[in-house]
Specification:
Structural class: alpha/beta
Strand content: 25-35%
Strand order of the largest sheet: 4-5-6-7-8
Helix content: 10-25%
Number of strands: 8
Length: about 190
């Protein structure tokens, strides 16, 4: 049985860099996580989350096709949300913020599937960290949040869903306003 001790985000980041492809990592600059969508057809190209500790880790979960050759798609196993932000909440706990960016109409069930599949992928990555890199990353000490950002429409006021974002089925849906970007604290 592994001893579940707390490890630093720097240790996690170093191990993830050994485990994952470099293109999977996103940008955090001046305490701002910069989430970008490169699809030419999307209107929501960039989301910024402020007040993010610089030692946080931003992973582009939907990058690549590695798992598409393993799973079938009937139940949504091959879907993934856009990003995972791993940030320190306090000395003992981290936040795992799963983020989906949407510009067009979307089906709520599709977003839920993306969050569920992404959570499973993170479980797999954590298992790899624990078993192969001996990092003892304890997800029980992490606060998970699931957030979907939509492009703010001019004809509607910004709204925030009544859901709390603690599970994939209960994700937060937020109209993104680039003039008033969310803080990490407001999302976690």
């Amino acid at each position: 049985m592994m001893n579940k001790i707390s490890i630093s985000l720097e240790d996690i980041k170093n191990s993830l860099q050994k485990l994952l492809v470099d293109e999977l990592f996103g940008n955090i600059e001046d305490q701002t996580a910069i989430l970008q969508e490169n699809d030419v057809s999307t209107r929501l190209k960039e989301v910024k989350i402020t007040n993010v500790p610089n030692d946080s880790i931003l992973i582009k979960i939907d990058y690549g096709q590695a798992y598409n050759n393993i799973f079938r798609s009937e139940e949504g196993q091959r879907k993934r949300c856009d990003y995972l932000l791993i940030a320190k909440r306090n000395k003992e706990r981290q936040t795992l913020l799963f983020v989906e960016m949407k510009s067009k109409t979307f089906k709520e069930d599709e977003i839920k599937q993306k969050f569920l599949a992404s959570e499973c992928l993170v479980d797999y990555i954590v298992s790899m960290l624990n078993r192969f890199h001996k990092k003892n990353f304890n997800q029980d000490k992490c606060k998970k949040r699931f957030v979907s950002f939509q492009q703010k429409r001019l004809d509607k006021k910004p709204i925030r869903s009544a859901k709390d974002g603690t599970t994939p089925e209960n994700y937060l849906s937020i109209n993104f306003d680039s003039n008033n970007p969310p803080t990490l604290k407001s999302l976690s």
